[in-house]
Amino acid sequence: MKITRKSFLKAAGLGLASTTGVVTGLGELTKAFAESKGKHACLVEPGLCAGCLSCAIACKKTNENPGTYDYSPDLGGDTFTTVKFKNLGTEDEPNWLKTKVQCFHCAEASCIDVCAAGAIKREGDIVKIDKDICIGCKNCHYACPFGVPRFDPELGIMKKCHFCSHRVPEGLPPACAEICPTDAVFYGTKEEVLRRAEERMAIVGGKARIYGKDILGGTAWIYLLEDEPEVYGFPNEPKFSSASMPAKWLTALIAAGGLTIVPYWLIAKEAKEKGGGK
């Protein structure tokens, strides 16, 4: 079931006829909207990637991130997706492996569990960071088995791919999937993506495998790999990481530069000096 912003507002307007109708109507729409989000997924085929970087450029454009045409070999605070190049051949006879990387949007997301401020939340299969809540503690980066979330030094917060959450609810595919000229990125429902992955795996043959279907509860970004995950820079068996709440906040305070701890330390020291060192 797809619900656009237009239909949502229209339904909400009609519901204003009665208070009960508003509450009930919005509740049902919110539930349906969340359910529709949970059906989205993408399939990435490194074997089809041309290395054109159209995906990275489109991503920066739609997110209005700086350095639109600057190539970044890794993810960053302003780079939510990129293509990593690895030469599997020799200098004289190169054989370039091209792998698009971004957040996997794990069903069992470590980043959500360890976030000190509770800034990382799930909307269907989409894992998002609320920039207004994030304190930049970096717990999510270290807990993520793929090291995806990255720190933005200008804003002092963590950022990553949010599955084009400003496009998908409008019925549009993620910018990277829409622009890919070789169909190396395929967007659809989870069922469609897995079906295509199975079909493509049968065609590719060899060591082809589906990566993401069974790891971490299943991911919204699925890969069709033609070799071991390590060859692509992915862990063979990514593990879920967790942390206790006290540890979360200790890390958060340290990340904040001790701004919360220092004043209390100074107060205690001043009180001790006034009391004659007792």
CATH topology of the largest domain: Alpha-Beta Plaits
Span between termini:
69 Å
Uncertain regions: pLDDT < 50 for 5+ in a row?
A: 1-37, 258-272
Helix content: 25-40%
Structural class by secondary-structure content: alpha+beta
Percentage beta strand:
15-25%
Gyration radius over CA: 23 Å
Specify the biggest β-sheet: 4 strands, mixed
Description:
With 278 residues, the chain is of the alpha+beta class. The chain has 3 domains: 37 residues; 194 residues, Alpha-Beta Plaits (2-Layer Sandwich); 27 residues. 33% of the residues lie in helices and 16% in strands. A hairpin with a 4-residue loop joins strand 6 and strand 7. The chain starts with a helix and ends with a helix.
What are the salient characteristics of this protein?
single chain, 278 residues, alpha+beta, Alpha-Beta Plaits, 3 domains, four-stranded mixed sheet, two-stranded antiparallel sheet, 33% helix
List the helices and strands and how they pair.
Layout: H1 5-14, H2 19-37, E1 40-44, H3 54-62, E2 82-87, E3 96-101, H4 110-114, E4 120-123, E5 126-129, H5 139-143, E6 150-152, E7 157-159, H6 175-179, E8 185-189, H7 190-204, E9 209-211, E10 221-225, H8 245-255, H9 261-274
Parallel strand pairs: 1-10
Antiparallel strand pairs: 1-8, 2-3, 4-5, 6-7, 9-10
Helix pairs in contact: 1-2
